[in-house]
Automatic annotation (TrEMBL):
Keywords of the record: DNA-binding
Gene3D superfamilies associated with the record: Tetracycline Repressor, domain 2
InterPro entries: Homeodomain-like_sf, HTH-type_TetR-like_transc_reg, HTH_TetR, TetR
Organism from which the protein derives: Stutzerimonas kunmingensis
Ranges annotated as DNA-binding: 28-47
A Pfam family the protein falls into: TetR
Protein name as catalogued: TetR/AcrR family transcriptional regulator
Superkingdom of the source species: Bacteria
Alphabetized GO MF terms: DNA-binding transcription factor activity; transcription cis-regulatory region binding
Length: 224
């Protein structure tokens, strides 16, 4: 039984590495089996198809995000909490970055996964609104509930599309690195700039500077 579990775990880990490096569309179950040095039949014993592997990996990603996207218990929010949440989220996005390269294609190919993702996104947005409200309650941000809802949605759009954005302005998927991904934290912090309370502006500005990363190449707005 332990050997079977070990093989299953190896398939999951190898698939994640191959999907991240080459893109899920470009990797077949035969590629995964060959990479591991096992027969396709051995792989199919554990997973009937590639969709099942993708669903397993999404479950890992979903569980990881669900664990940290919560308000801290029994204390007020602090400016540094912004970095903690965004670091954790972008770390998960980096480790499972293949999910964000072709999310629409993955969901179109698997209606059950699409339903799971819709529920996951809804939970994330609810928790994000609660977190922003926590910053309001702590006197760090100044906004009403409607503004908090809009900010949570805008932050979600930026973060979940950041991997694809980097692929369009760089040399493609192979050019992605974690440093570029960190610029996504700055982009979300920039969305909040107009809502920062006077007493927190210096600390938030220092946090923004910490996460600013030059992106090269970027479209030149001063060009044609």
């Amino acid at each position: 039984m332990a050997s079977r579990t070990k093989t299953r775990d190896r398939i999951i880990q190898a698939s994640l590495g191959l999907f991240n490096a080459q893109g899920e569309r470009n990797v077949t179950t035969n590629h995964i089996a060959a990479h591991l040095g096992i027969s396709p039949g051995n792989l199919y014993y554990h997973f009937p198809n590639k969709q099942a592997i993708v669903a397993e990996l999404f479950g890992q990603y979903e569980s990881r995000v669900d664990q940290f996207l919560r308000l801290p218990p029994e204390r007020e929010m602090q400016v540094q909490d912004k970095a903690l949440y965004l670091e954790a989220l972008l770390g998960a996005m980096w480790d499972y970055r293949f999910l964000h390269r072709d999310l629409e294609g993955l969901l179109d190919a698997n209606p059950q996964l699409a339903q799971r993702y819709q529920a996951f996104a809804g939970r994330c947005l609810r928790h994000a609104r609660a977190i922003y409200q926590g910053f309001v309650d702590a006197g760090i941000l100044l906004m009403d509930p409607l503004q908090a809802e809009a900010l949570a949605l805008n932050a979600w759009i930026v973060l979940t599309s950041w991997v694809r954005f980097l692929g369009t302005v760089g040399a493609g998927a192979g050019s992605l690195d974690q440093l570029q991904l960190r610029r996504g934290i700055y982009q979300v912090l920039a969305l909040e700039s107009g809502f920062v309370a006077p007493g927190a502006r210096e600390a938030v500005a220092a946090l923004q500077q910490q996460y600013f990363v030059e992106l090269d190449p970027l479209p030149d707005s001063r060009g044609v």
